Amino acid sequence: MNEIGVEALAGVANAVESIEPIPETSGAERVIADVLAIGARVEDAERVRDSVPLWFHTFALAPGIYTPGIARAHGYRLGVLGADRFAGRSVLDVGAFDGFYSFLAEARGARRVVAVDNEQYVDWVRARFGVTLTGGVGFRAVAGLIGSRVEYRRIDALEVRELGERFEVVLCFGILHRVRNPIGLLRALADVLAPGGEIVLETYGSHPAANAPAIEVHEPGEVYARDEFVYWGFSPEGLRRLGRIVGLEEVEVVDELEIDGHPRILALLRAAD
Ligand SMILES: C[S@@+](CC[C@H](N)C(=O)[O-])C[C@H]1O[C@@H](n2cnc3c(N)ncnc32)[C@H](O)[C@@H]1O
Questions:
Q1: CA 128 to chain centre
Q2: Rounded to whole angstroms, what are the CA distances from 203 to 99, 206, 236, 265?
Q3: Structural domain of residue 230, as residue ranges?
Q4: Is residue 5 part of a domain?
Q5: Residues 49-82: pLDDT tens digits?
Q6: What residues does ligand 1 touch, defined as CB less than 6 Å away?
Q7: Which pLDDT tens digit goes with each residue over 19-29?
């Protein structure tokens, strides 16, 4: 083989090495999925599962048939997502991806649910796993299966004012650390909150002391290899100050924990009545 051929082969080997294997779904994700058991016919469940090349969320499509989601152990969010949070309320889910939380809100009695995503995940899913997704494919597959009325919009979360409506609950999970302008995102969400409304926020946490008003700044690819979109890690006091900056005085930090070696933080930010 000539030198060019050897180099080309080495290039292919590097490219292959740099792609992560798609992680197996564990029992923990299935337990979370079971809170939204869909109960479809087996043929329909298998068709939907197989129609999407990579799932973010694990859905319980039918008894024993789950989508193989890559999201890890997000069950700690469920404690703040009971029917009391959703029943009769209007809900905005920003960064919805496959829409597990949008569909959960609908199943738990929300009167209207809007799901928003700019489909940034298409880029990092390709970079990390070598899989090219059509934006919204998982969301639409599940929505069709369950006959959901959730409205899906491909827009940036910073542009939610364009929706022209207010929401009693905004779900902002796994996205604040992925935007360049976290104050801009929180301000945009605060602007679409109804009086007395609340943002349920979950994001990447931080290791400095909880009372340090600090935000960690990550190098591209430092948190998840080849994922260039994780910029920040937030401390409780950092989040409280950000809340105050956008006029949300009441910030309750509900939980801080470590998932798969990654710090996470869960908080409620409330608008005045
Ligand atoms: C890590 S996933 C989290 C999905 C889901 N919210 C959850 O926590 O299970 C982040 C999602 O936010 C979306 N996203 C990131 N930045 C966004 C932005 N500026 N506007 C809308 N969606 C965004 C990504 O495309 C992706 O679907």
A1: 17
A2: 17, 10, 11, 6
A3: 73-270
A4: no
A5: 999 999 999 999 999 999 999 998 788 999 999 9
A6: 71, 74, 94-97, 116-121, 156-158, 173-175, 178-179
A7: 788 878 888 89
